[in-house]
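Tutorial handout. Part one gives the primary structure; part two gives the three-dimensional structure as tokens.
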Amino acid sequence: RPVPPPFAQGDAFAYTGRGEYQALVDLEKFGGMPQGKLLIGLQHWWGEYGNVSLRTGAFAPAIFPAALPPVPDREGVPMLTDFVFTQPLSKELVLFAGKKNVIGAVDQDDFAGGNGIAQFMNQALIANPAFLLALPYSAMQFGAVSPREWGAITVFAMDPQDQTREFLRVDDLFSKGIILGGEVKVKTNFFSLPGEQHVGGLWKNVEMTDLQFNLPPPGDYPEKPVQGFATRWGSYTLYYGFDQYLQVYSEETKRGWGLFGRASISDANPTPIHYFLSCGIGGYSPFAHCRGDTFGIGGFYVGASDEFGPIPQALFGPRDGMGLEVFYNFQLTPAVNLTPDFQVIRPGTSLGDTAYVAGLRLNIKF
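Part two.
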């Protein structure tokens, strides 16, 4: 049924496109840095920003890649989202620094991850919606990865100021706070089949709106507080994830299918999501894995905070949300994929009823 503003109205059909362009520079050849790399990435979107995401009433975008980069007023304008240096110091220590896109950095599974262009489209089945709140899409980051035989350790520090619209800015780093994160990933071999499990956390020393606010909500509630509203500094999210292969067709191709799952808990104020759960099954199709077809069936549950004040309770009617998504990705050629997708979404607000989203995604790589 029609959803009241600010989510837009009723049934809709929308088309959105996006482009990604990447170049990887070998700094050993061009700059003399042994095994050093420079990743340069640009992104842009066209059509209708966000597609039908704002019409479902749900917090997590149903068509996540259509809302990236998150700049609604720059249709067709390429933006520098990645300019990051990577330098291995040894086999067990790799440093990185520069402007980096946050999508896919942590909490990734083989069967549910990326940025919405290859697997699931709903953001809740791509990355945890709790810790993405108030994260800049493209910002200066500094960190290290320690690859190990048993897995990997990742730690990083991020400037909370988003630079998606800008080229590079380094004169006021960390003047608005700091975001710290870390993750430990462990390889598993249950049932003599590959898998992985990971745990991690993010702590954001960033000013966010207090969920108890007693005035009309600020403009970009809740991650960009407006002067005069109650705010809080410091929020956290702890998370866990896994994937486990149930069948591997070939050790050479590493193609197979299996289970995945995620769970998290957050502070509940200022983070409006207290806990989050998702699980599903996916991977290469049992019917056409030689061609490269993939599939996914996933569900999620978003537990709303119980610390909303009376005004936001009356305005939004926050409640627990949930959803289900199914997709099948046809590998038409080595460079072309076509993916029918269907979602059922119960939004985390009482303003709207259950939404049904059917979509078709076309990818072309060159």
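Part three, for discussion. Residues 310-316 form the longest helix (7 residues). The two ends are 41 Å apart (CA to CA).
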